[in-house]
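call fold(seq) -> tokens
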Amino acid sequence: METFTLAHFQESADFIRRHTQIQFKTAIILGTGLGNLVDQVEVDAVLDYSDIPHFPLSTVETHSGKLIAGYLDKVPVLVMQGRFHYYEGYSMKQVTYPVRVMKLLGIENLFISNIAGGINAQFELADLMILEDHINLQPDNPLLGKNINEIGPRWPDMFEPYKRSWIDEALAFGQAQGYRIREGVYASVAGPNLETRAEYRYLAGIGADAVGMSTVPEVIVANHMGMKVFAISAISDLCYEPKLKPADITELLQAAADAQPKMTAIFRHLLGKV
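ret:
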């Protein structure tokens, strides 16, 4: 099992601090096909993940693998342009390593985006789903092993993993803009293969509205350290009959691109409220 200590996290944080003096409270993790929000950032520093001590490397083609420090609408932000996944061969401690470092940098608020398959039959392509809860079907947990008591409790509560007031604020804003937006439950699976028809039926049966291969590990670690979390999915494919069909990565990325401006607007709106 991969083992990291406070010293590892601190070494990474110190390296980032040598490149930017911005005092952050908010970080954003951008998922597959959703990296263009950084075009709106007034950039102070850009760091390749490969240069940051102990950071994994993003192996997904649509993830840029850069950490960007700057300002979005004059609000200090630290942006991950690309994340890590269990299916890339990383341990859960590696997948969530950047979130640990964020805490040492002063991050209190974490915004997360992803693309997800729509299991709820009310979804259409490029709809937005705000996560109000999740089902963790990953085969591992980032909190396994010795707990670091200085940064979080042994048994963190997960009653409200996503900040309710931010959910309500985002829903109201999105609806006022005319977006197709709702809240729902996100099921997180290991991947990298997509699900079978039977598995989609199973996920619907246990209460999932959408399914993806990320987000929940980061959310668990963020809650462990007392960070407030907001997460949103772009519905990239439809996983219910009669809309279910073989997945096409080009179509998935197009749905993400269609949803991206709306997702960016929601993030920018919430940033004005934190």
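Residues 115 and 199 are 18 Å apart (CA to CA).
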